[in-house]
Amino acid sequence: MLRIAPALLLLGLAVAMPLAGASAQERARQRSPAPATARLSFIGLADKAQVPARLTVRFAISGMEVVPAGQPMRYGGHHHLLIDTELPPLDQPIPSDFNHIHFGGGQTEAEIALTPGKHTLQLLFADHNHVPHDPPIMSERITVEVPAMPAEKPRSAAAPGARVFFLDLQDGATIPSHARIRFGAEGIAVTPAGTASPNGGHHHLLVDTDVPALDREIPSDFNHLHFGRGQTEAELTLPQGEHTLQLLMGDHEHVPHDPPVMSPRIRVRVVADGQPAAAAAPSPPHAHGAAAGRTPSPNDAAVYFVYPRDGDRIYPTSTIRFGLRNMGVAPAGVAKPNTGHHHLLVDTETPPFDAPIPSDLNHIHLGGGQTEYKLTLPNGRHTLQLLLADENHVPHDPPVISERITVIVAPGGPNARRRR
Amino acid sequence: MSRARIAITCLFALMAWQGLVAETVAQTPARQSAPPGAQVYFHYPIDGLSVPERFTVRIGLRGMGVAPAGVDHARTGHHHLLIDTEPGTPDQPIPSDYNHIHLGNGQTEVVVTLPKGRHTLQLLLGDYTHTPHNPPVMSPKITINVR
Questions:
Q1: In the prediction, which pLDDT does A122 show?
Q2: Residue extents of the structural domains in chain B
Q3: Interchain proximity A336–B109, CB inside 8 Å
Q4: Nearest alpha carbon to residue A346 among A370, A365, A357, A362
Q5: Fold of B2-146
Q6: By the 8 A CB rule, do A341 and A330 touch?
């Protein structure tokens, strides 16, 4: 009740304003009509929710159509997200600034970054001229809280003496413009991003850049290459000239360890592919050790949970549904490029990638090519992870593995108690 | 490199399929049976949804497994996405054209691009010869609005 009071007040102001000043009246635009039944709300975001600092906000509109800005259409409009601000005057175009985010392309979701603390979010629909409809179509104003991060999130620890280094590549080396760079790690395990593991992390290759801030996520751009799937080598294409390369390990959330595990920064000279590369050019035919027998997977392949999602409350008997991008499913025993079969890992660590996945109650093989599985679990907290494997149950290279998600099993399932 | 491999795989799948079509037309072999309760369904999109012109169709399958075309395994099949078309007679191989998208490598999702307007989508599982099972494992036909 109290929460809508300022909105009502502003509404009152907005109505009063045209009466007060003639200039305001001139500026006031013709407002587009809206049906009385139209509803606007957030999807999956409740009032007083705790949210991560970076979150995806999804909008639901019913009774109206989403059209890009600039296209007049009866009962059409586009979304605006108001962050930490009151409603703007409703007879004028919505301002465009950090507090009033326009989705003029007709987007129905957005990734936003919030600072720790409390924030208010509200949706406001507007017509082709960014002017709210008559009556205005808006959501409830909700308050979300971003927990203070640094205090409760210490950086992952790295074992003393852990180090990363370039294999076959020394400072001052000359390499072709298209080169294979291989990474070595000692005293620390290489594990995919998204999977927390003690003393583990994944490589980041810093190209022509300084070391980034060590207390936060390593940026992801052309200068900071992430190898989130646990790759230990990369095909790198660089323009001719002098470049610097450096390796930096990041934990499951891409944050460097404490102490940071990084290589010295080396300088390389890149020459055209045809020219003889002096000194330490990477030797193409290299023994791959235990990984020799693994089936390659496409670089953009990914496996993920369609249901449940991380943090979900689920029924004791639930159907777990798997999604697979850029690869196909084949039953175990079928050797076909770019295919594999699912394994559901329950309450267990990620197994080694160079051996067949064990078969027991914690490693469920879907050897018949199934893409979902009815799982019964005791009440409480459980972890789930998906790992694709080839016809011999050996993970691909690089491994096609999902994040490890946590679910809470409760007799009432999702209805038991609202999460957080 | 992997792209080339996919292309080659597709080519092989297509060739294998055409060979199989010739065979099936000649002899019409017994259709593979589907277990009771087998069901194919849309994770995304769902009936009545408005979607952008380019979107990913995600496919769920209950009570059976997925196998690439040409792989003869009991209780498996591969997905076909039917766009703006009716399913044909269930004892004939599913045609391969713009209205019948074959996911012959065992894919469980596919990116499609459709012109603006209303379209119907339907899923139909085919066995290793691209023939629907007995009884056919087929989703209800859904209507989507591409905007």
A1: 93
A2: 2-146
A3: no
A4: A362
A5: Immunoglobulin-like (2.60.40)
A6: yes
ipTM value: 0.73
C-alpha span between A14 and B44 (Å, rounded): 42
Cβ neighbours of B55 in A, within 8 Å? none
Task: Please state, in angstroms and as integers, the Cα–Cα distance from residue A289 to each residue in A133, A286, A294, A340, B116, following that order.
Answer: 66, 9, 10, 22, 52
Locate the DSSP E strands across B47-106.
50-51, 54-62, 65-66, 76-83, 100-102
pLDDT at site A152: 52
3-state SS class at A35: coil
Report domain A163-283's class. Answer: mainly beta
pLDDT tens-digit map of A9-48: 444 444 444 444 444 444 556 788 888 888 899 988 888 8
Per the listing, tokens 């011999």 go with A392
Residues of chain B contacting A337 with CB distance shorter than 8 Å = 5-6, 9
- A-chain residue closest to B69, CA distance: A330
Torsion of CA A139, A143, A146, A147, to 10 degrees: -150
With H, G, I as helix, E, B as strand and everything else as coil, classify residue A8.
Answer: helix
How do residues A332-377 score in pLDDT, each as one tens digit?
999 889 999 999 999 999 899 989 999 888 999 999 999 999 999 9
Which of A25-39, A216-230, A306-320, B21-35 has maximum average pLDDT?
A: A306-320
Closest CB from B2, B60, B68 relative to A339 = B68
Residues of A in contact with B68 (CB under 8 A): 328, 330, 334, 336, 339
Q: Do A306 and B43 touch (CB under 8 A)?
A: yes
From the candidates B43, B46, B66, B75, which should be mutated to test the interface with A, based on the most A CB atoms within 10 A? B66
Out of B62, B73, B109, closest to residue A323 by CB: B109
d(CA B85, CA B121): 8
Q: How far is A335 from chain B (nearest CA, A)?
A: 10
Q: Taking the domain A302-415, which CATH number applies?
A: 2.60.40.10
Domain map (residue ranges) of chain A? 4-151, 163-283, 302-415
Residue A327: list chain B partners with CB under 8 A.
Answer: 105, 107
Which residues in chain A have their CB less than 8 angstroms from residue B109's CB?
A: 323-325
Structurally, what CATH architecture does the domain formed by A4-151 represent? Sandwich (2.60)
**pLDDT one-digit tens code per residue, A70-121:** 888 888 899 999 999 988 988 888 988 888 888 888 888 888 888 888 899 9
* Fold equal for A163-283 and A302-415: yes
Q: Do B108 and A323 touch (CB under 8 A)?
A: yes
* Interchain pair A327, B103: CB under 8 A: no
Question: Where residue A277 falls among pLDDT bands split at 50, 70, 90?
Answer: very low
Contacts of A231 in chain B (CB under 8 A): none
